[in-house]
Design a protein that fits this description.
By secondary structure, the protein is α/β, with parallel strands linked by helices. It has one domain: 2-Layer Sandwich (Nucleotidyltransferase, domain 5), CATH 3.30.420.130. Helix content is about 30%, strand content about 20%. The protein has 4 helices and 6 strands. A 6-stranded mixed beta sheet has the order 3-2-1-4-5-6, sandwiched between helices. The protein is globular.
Length: about 120
Amino acid sequence: MIIAVAASGNDFAGPIADRFGRAPGFFIVDTETGKNTYLNNSASISMGHGAGVQTTKTVAEAGAKAAIGPHFGPSAFGTLKAAGLRVFTASGSVEKAVEDYIAGSLQEVLQSDVQGHHGRY
């Protein structure tokens, strides 16, 4: 399965980004082969509105079927679910999050857990 993990930078052993929709980048990981590719997300970071939607489009086009991050705003969460992706929460390093996903120990997210730019969850 292809998964997308929100990353603070392009170091696979580095920390997960603080928030999915405005993550500096993503590791797209094939859990069957272990291959990973870093995708820069700088265009979405600078967006005033719609970062979560644009980010979801980027990871879905990369073939991801699951998204992993520490927090998901309403736009990112809603768009991920509408695109058919499963959503999981994790903290620590990208590498550890991938290991935990493969082991089946990540918690699936059932709703947005942070406010969006308009104060809604």
